[in-house]
Design a protein that fits this description.
There is one protein chain. The chain is mainly α. The protein has one domain. It is globular and about 60 Å long. The two termini are 34 Å apart.
Length: 221
């Protein structure tokens, strides 16, 4: 039971976020109106994605230092989980953009940077599948992973702040704090970030354990 408490907590948080996110009070904001509820879902997906990519980088470094195959397996499953949340973030973002900006994918630096970052990690998966030799595949993909992470941080968080962007906090636009992200939003928003990161961690650990079982079966075959 002691190992399951955080999983139970994650489910409880997400259930509360979904209920309060759809039915709870929200401030009346210009242009955003009721669509501000998407802040409980869209933004936390990116937090979960970045968390998983960071975990992947850490285990890629650990693999290069030790050569343990288990670290490589954790790195790839963290990326797989991160990409899942990346697509969820893109989907919720496109829905929000269509409502507030009139089209699902306007020519926006942050959106374009997100697309490039997604393609970079999809290329990571293609690279792994293109290499047959296990150690060579693990080493090359680990190096690629380590360099890819800071690049996506630049693409998603730094460049949009230096150019004109529709997103809050970028290109001179105000942040959500400036848009009266009041106490009506903050508790649910922060809870959502924590909840989705825990869910992502849960998914990643499940995928990792499945990989270990598959590897064990291959070795015993």
């Amino acid at each position: 039971m002691r190992k399951k408490w955080w999983k139970i907590l994650a489910v409880m948080i997400i259930c509360a976020v979904i209920i309060n996110g759809l039915l709870g009070p929200v401030p009346r904001l210009f242009i955003l109106h009721e669509s501000i509820r998407n802040v409980y879902f869209h933004v936390p997906m990116w937090f979960a994605m970045i968390s998983m990519y960071l975990v992947s980088v850490i285990y890629s470094i650990k693999y290069l230092n030790t050569g343990k195959q288990e670290y490589d397996l954790m790195a790839i499953e963290a990326v797989n989980t991160g990409i899942t949340f990346c697509f969820l973030g893109l989907a919720t973002g496109m829905l929000w953009a269509n409502i507030t900006w009139g089209e699902p994918w306007p020519n926006d630096p942050k959106l374009n940077g997100s697309a490039i970052a997604t393609l970079m990690y999809l290329a990571y998966l293609v690279l792994r599948n293109a290499l047959d030799e296990e150690q060579k595949r693990a080493k090359i993909s680990a190096v690629y992973n380590i360099f890819a992470f800071p690049i996506i941080i630049v693409l998603i968080y730094i460049l949009p702040k230096l150019t004109d962007s529709l997103h809050p906090g970028s290109g001179g636009n105000g942040t959500f704090a400036d848009l009266q992200m009041s106490n009506e939003l903050r508790p649910t928003f922060y809870s959502s970030v924590i909840g989705w990161i825990l869910i992502a961690t849960w998914i990643c650990t499940l995928r990792y354990r499945m990989r270990l079982l598959e590897r064990k079966q291959e070795l015993n075959a």
